[in-house]
Write a structure and sequence with these properties.
heterodimer; A: alpha+beta; Ubiquitin-like (UB roll); Alpha-Beta Plaits; 2 domains; five-stranded mixed β-sheet; 6 helices; globular; B: alpha/beta; Glutaredoxin; Rossmann fold; four-stranded mixed β-sheet; 13 strands
Chain lengths: 237, 550
């Protein structure tokens, strides 16, 4: 073992846990089977702290911290479940459901969708907010894949996997605020873009926003677990 | 450059001006320029030449009282003229040496006497594009002293002792921030000046950059010496073309005089500054978004920690301060920290520049010592509400701040007092509203601003502000129910506590503060479909008298 390894101990939900100093609270929690909901986080990609579902309470701080980017500290006391956090997580999910057109019954990823699964895990039964129902486009110009903006939650996993793993950086975000949109190249149709057709973005997409044309009905499981494996092989471990 | 040479330049500059009997300072800030003060200056120059009087006409920066532009200040008699136009030039030049021109005098002694100028001490007195005039008014003495007589630690101590807090809105102690960056290793470091002033109704930073850019450059150079940085960036919004052109000219002048570049003031200290232009995104005033923008990335914030003091521009330790903060540095070192900390309140030292706008007689810039009450600022310096209307609220802190009602007018202005009243200092915008403003509509305006300026990265800010805007619109239109109001209040709580950066965290503030002080207006819209200011489209009738007062 290298002498540089620094070990910290902390408490998560009353359980004493140990961690390497460079680990995040989310990593340590998952190692210890403590579930924290996430949508923008994906093992193997950089973290952006954007979905705000993994917010946790830290003792002696009035602020909430996203567990995906919160580095462990010695003696830290973290709470991942409380009525307040549950309320915030449910409201954030409501905001996502009301933002675009998430209709599970007609979605290719019905029953394989992370947004749907997260809502179920957080006990969300209904949405109090009015649906905004924007009319957004569907780009089917790629011979293999389809991008349906109506189901996009702007987690930017596609942007990050294309940039960090595939190295193509075809996807990016344009526009501001509620008008933000993921685009290919400088808003060229996907089929005419510099896309390599590797399909990584489709597999990491948590919803049915990016899907494979060959998958019909609601039978579109996604396999995002390849990312840490690819990283491991590249590092030659 | 040695201190003797600096003194020589200062003396030469003073002597050059003393040979004239009169100086005519013409305000060439954006406000007066929009009223063609450049033509006034040309006309005055022509008339002076014709009259044969020994008089110097010069362009200066903002004199503060934008409402009465174009402004002309006559030195040494200190006569101030307002609303001066080309046609007045002959009469004005003829009056020099005799009785002042009654017709054009501003007669606003209260406006000027209530103020205390530190940041604005040179505004309206020097030509912003001439470095020697700045040196003539003690410019660059502080940098010279810091470099030749102090070690970096002493500079930081002086700033800490002065009690200066960040003027961008957060109010973080400046000395503490400098100390953090100074301690962050020995490698490459950066100093950034945040000039991405975006609050509606705020124009302090623009004015400082237009009127006295050398002061900001000097402050940045001192900061760079204190923290060990060799490179600086000024991030200015592209909507400020005049500030950018004056700053560009000033950087060139500072390099020519050897205050930027290598071997500054004959020491081993090297520092230079580049300008970066913002492309109009409000969120780029947030420090991590600003850094991303300088790096050429999409201007959106990232979670902190790590703070820029540890990992900022290109991963290097970075000091980032507001324009007005840097403008305070030179006077603090020149006059000593005790002098500065003797001004202001217990925990908010010094002065603050405010941009007075809205329904107020004397629209313009004012610099007041901390601790002055809102009433003094609005009714004495600002001259009160014009056209016989009554005061309703004052909005401070831009879209992150809040609206304070009449009963809080005796609140003395300081970081902590404003926060406890439900508003905040912010960068210094102060919008005064009278009885023609509907507070629900005001909250809706600020929410629309936050919605369109949200970067779209985090869910609560992106989707939450849009939902809140829709709910506020519904209330304004007289179509909302009490359930909608409860939902709005709940969303305020969620967005405030779960957003990624300051924009989202403070976006609910205008709603929360108007709900705190003007809830009856919300209820009138909901219950009676009535807007007391007559601004909103709801067509209902006023509630019975006793309900209004309840």
């Amino acid at each position: 073992m290298s002498p540089a390894v620094d070990v910290k101990t902390l408490v998560i939900d009353g359980i004493d846990v140990s961690a390497r100093a460079d680990q995040t609270v989310l990593e340590v929690a998952r190692e210890n089977n403590i579930f924290i909901p996430t949508l923008c986080h994906l093992d193997g990609l950089s973290d952006v702290g954007a979905c705000r579902l993994c917010l946790v309470e830290v003792k002696n701080s009035p602020k909430l911290f996203p567990a995906c980017v919160l580095k462990v500290e010695e003696g830290m006391e973290v709470t991942t479940k409380s009525d307040r956090l549950l309320h915030y997580r449910q409201t954030i999910l409501e905001l996502l459901f009301a933002e675009r057109n998430h209709v599970c019954s007609v979605c290719v990823t019905n029953n394989h969708c992370e947004l749907q699964a997260t809502a179920q895990s957080q006990g969300l039964t209904h949405v109090r907010l009015p649906y905004r129902s924007p009319r957004l486009g569907v780009d089917a110009s790629n011979e293999r894949f389809v991008a349906d903006q109506n189901r996009c939650i702007l987690c930017t996993r596609c942007v990050r996997v294309c940039d960090e793993i595939e190295g193509a950086h075809v996807w990016d975000v344009m526009g501001r605020g509620i008008d933000s949109m993921v685009i290919t190249d400088l808003m060229q149709p996907w089929g005419e873009s510099s896309c390599t057709r590797c399909g990584k973005c489709v597999n990491v997409c948590p919803t049915g926003a990016l899907f494979d044309k060959t998958k019909v009905g609601s039978d579109h499981p996604k396999y995002p677990d390849f990312v840490p494996y690819l990283n491991m092989m590249r590092e030659g471990r | 450059m040695t201190s003797e040479e600096l003194l020589q330049i200062a003396e030469a500059s003073t002597a050059e001006h003393e040979q004239f009997d009169f100086q005519l300072n013409v305000c060439m800030g954006t406000g007066c320029m929009s009223q063609h003060s450049d033509k006034v200056k040309a006309a005055l120059t022509e008339e002076v030449a014709k009259s044969g009087k020994h008089c110097h006409v010069r362009q200066t920066g903002c004199m503060g009282l934008c409402a009465a532009g174009p402004l002309v200040l006559v030195e040494p008699t200190e006569t101030r003229y307002g609303n001066v136009h080309e046609a007045d030039a002959k009469e004005l030049v003829d009056s020099l040496g005799g009785k002042p021109l009654e017709r054009l005098e501003t007669h606003l002694d209260k406006y000027f006497q209530g103020q205390q100028h530190i940041v604005l001490e040179n505004s309206g007195h020097i030509d912003p594009e001439k470095i020697d005039e700045y040196i003539g008014r003690d410019g660059y003495q502080a940098l010279m002293t810091a470099l030749t007589q102090m070690d970096p630690q002493t500079v930081i101590e002086q700033i800490s002792k002065s009690g200066l807090r960040g003027r961008g809105g957060g109010g973080y102690p400046t000395g503490l921030k400098w100390g953090m960056v100074a301690k962050a290793g020995k490698g490459q470091k950066y100093v950034i000046c945040n000039g991405d002033e975006g609050d509606p109704g705020a124009f302090m930073d623009r004015s400082v950059l237009e009127s006295d850019p050398q002061r900001v450059i000097e402050g940045m150079a001192i900061a760079a010496y204190a923290v060990g940085a060799s490179k600086g960036y000024v991030y200015v919004r592209a909507e400020y073309p005049l500030a950018i052109s004056r700053l560009t000219a000033s950087l060139r002048e500072a390099r020519r005089r050897g205050f930027l570049g290598s071997n500054i003031c004959g020491t081993t200290f090297a520092f230079d500054i580049e300008i970066r232009l913002g492309a109009g995104a409000f969120v780029c005033g947030e420090e991590t978004a600003l850094i991303a923008s300088i790096e050429g990335q999409r201007g959106q914030p990232r979670p902190r920690p790590p703070y820029p003091a540890v990992s900022g521009l290109w991963g290097c330790p970075t000091l980032i301060n507001n324009v007005e903060t840097f403008a305070n540095i030179a006077p603090i070192l020149r006059n000593g920290p005790q002098w500065y900390s003797s001004i202001g309140t217990e925990r908010s030292k010094g002065t603050k520049v405010f941009a007075l706008t809205g329904k107020i007689a004397n629209t313009g810039l004012v610099e007041i010592p901390m601790g002055m009450t809102l009433r003094e600022i609005i009714f004495e310096i600002g001259g009160g509400i014009p056209n016989g209307h009554t005061f309703k609220a004052v909005q401070t802190g831009g879209p992150s701040g809040g609206c304070l009602p009449e009963e809080h007018l005796d609140l003395s202005v300081s970081y902590d007092a404003l926060i406890s009243a439900g508003s905040m200092m912010g960068s210094g915008g102060m919008i005064v509203m009278d009885d023609t403003s509907c507070m629900v509509n005001v909250a809706r305006f600020f929410m629309e601003f936050c919605m369109t300026e949200s970067c779209g990265k985090c869910v609560p800010c992106r989707a939450g502000t849009a939902q809140m805007f829709d709910l506020l619109t519904k209330i304004c239109d007289g179509e909302a129910t009490h359930a909608d109001l409860d939902l709005l209040i709940d969303l305020c709580d969620v967005v405030k506590n779960t957003s990624l950066c300051g924009l989202g965290m403070t976006a609910p503030n205008p709603v929360l503060s108007t709900l705190r002080y003007f809830k009856h207006e919300y209820l009138e819209h909901i219950d009676n479909k009535y807007c007391r200011a007559g601004v909103c489209a709801c067509a209902g009738k006023a509630p019975a008298k006793e309900e209004v007062t309840a």
